[in-house]
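Bump. Still looking for 7-carboxy-7-deazaguanine synthase structure tokens.
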Amino acid sequence: MYINEIFLSIQGEGLYSGEKMVFIRTEYCNLRCSWCDTKYSFYEGKEMSIDEIVESARNINSGHGASWICLTGGEPLLQKDISVLVDRLSEEYNILLETSGSLNIGRFLPNHVKVKKDIDFKLPSSGMYRKFNDKNISYMEEGDYIKFVVNDLNDFNVAMEEIEKIGKNVKIVVQPVYGTDIKVLADAFIDKAPSNARLMLQEHKYIYGEIRGV
Ligand SMILES: C[S@@+](CC[C@H](N)C(=O)[O-])C[C@H]1O[C@@H](n2cnc3c(N)ncnc32)[C@H](O)[C@@H]1O
Ligand SMILES: Nc1nc2[nH]cc(C(=O)O)c2c(=O)[nH]1
Ligand code: SF4
Ligand SMILES: [Mg+2]
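Sorry for the wait, here they are.
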């Protein structure tokens, strides 16, 4: 398995924001979102065995007591043995998976392990619109959510249409592309967003700035 970085931080995105987590970021992604803040993960990484990854996470977390792992990337589901890693990590941690929504999650995850899922739905400004694999809606469970990263009001209006189609029983996170005008988005959100959606920022960037490993 090709790993870009492993680090301890505060979850900065989505419904588990504020949780102390060990982040395991895998190398490579099948998409190329225009506003991706992790392009360095596309081709940087080193091969690590499952044992080495588990050991590294344990060492980084030693004395810190994080009870969560955030599996992210790049696109973590592209890594061979990802389900073996999930199996192993689930013995010690809660797991949050950050995935782009373009891959059928059911084909990659062991269904006997409870993984919380943050599934992206890419909007037009990303250049990756219509890459969402609709099968992923059927895998949504308690504690999972779909994240819409919004760059402009066209993205927002498309997100509102897609959220309507997905339905009210799925939790939604609307997240601004970092650096865009949050007030414009907040006004539109107040005006039109449904009750199953919430507007959330990338907290870690306000704490540490836009650097890797945090
Ligand atoms: C770097 S991606 C890695 C996981 C997976 N490839 C995905 O896109 O969900 C993790 C999260 O960061 C979000 N993200 C990436 N660049 C961003 C940016 N510039 N502003 C806000 N969110 C961003 C993505 O949309 C995704 O929700
Ligand atoms: N603190 C922190 N929280 C995050 N949540 C999702 C992240 C990601 O890059 O997948 C991320 C990240 O890079 N850092
Ligand atoms: S899917 Fe995720 S890692 Fe891949 S380009 Fe988009 S935001 Fe970046
Ligand atoms: Mg990040």
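The mean pLDDT is 96.

Edit: fixed formatting.
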